[in-house]
Amino acid sequence: MATSKLSIAIIGAGMGGLAVAATLRRAGITVHVYEQAPRFARIGAGIQMMPNSMKVLRGIGVEEKLRQKSFQPYSHLNREGDTGKVMRELPMPESLFGAPYLCMHRADLHDALLSALPEDLIHLDKKLVGLEQSAEEVTMIFADGTQARADAVIGADGVHSVVRDIIIGPDAPIHKGRIAYRAVFPSTLLNGGGIGPSRTRLIVSPPPAT
């Protein structure tokens, strides 16, 4: 007797949700992704993909697409923010790890992951408001009054996860006191200069307490 194909619903079409959807499809599982935003926009700034991460993206089939829009540094540098002194350098040659170390705009990574999925599997403007589980399936209830069903649901809806709130109750993020400032500037501001062979992080120590 033939068995039905396993179906998985993913809540959230960010990088995590799209990556797991593409991976599950390659395993032969039916997936649908539900995203609360009505459309995708070019948001965010720089993001780095270490060699092990790139091996995962290679398996999904988007490595070459990312190479076309990424900077491939030789190493990762930590520098003091006020003096520029090198605190640590970690070489990341592709020849050593078997995959590249790439730095890219977050939107380019998102676009690459999106290209690995057929358009009809991505459902926009679907804000989850409820989950109902039975012995056979899970029913998703959306703010627009529609419903969808799947054998299982994966929550990939970020730090303010509705799925998590439904399953374990309301929760709030805990601020650990660490802040990273990110921005995007046009390369013309370099006046023809290069950015060097390394990805550099500037570390600024907080002033001493008075």
Please render the helix and strand layout as text.
Layout: E1 7-11, H1 15-26, E2 30-34, E3 46-49, H2 51-60, H3 63-67, E4 75-80, E5 86-91, H4 94-97, E6 102-105, H5 106-115, E7 122-123, E8 128-133, E9 138-142, E10 147-150, E11 152-155, H6 162-168, E12 198-203
Helix pairs in contact: 1-5
Describe the model.
The chain has helices spanning 15-26, 51-60, 63-67, 94-97, 106-115, 162-168, and strands spanning 7-11, 30-34, 46-49, 75-80, 86-91, 102-105, 122-123, 128-133, 138-142, 147-150, 152-155, 198-203. The protein is of the alpha/beta class. The protein has a domain at 1-39 and 124-173: 3-Layer(bba) Sandwich (FAD/NAD(P)-binding domain). Strand 1 (7-11), helix 1 (15-26) and strand 2 (30-34) form a beta-alpha-beta unit. The longest helix is centred in the first third of the chain and has 12 residues, at 15-26. The radius of gyration is 21 Å and the shape is globular.
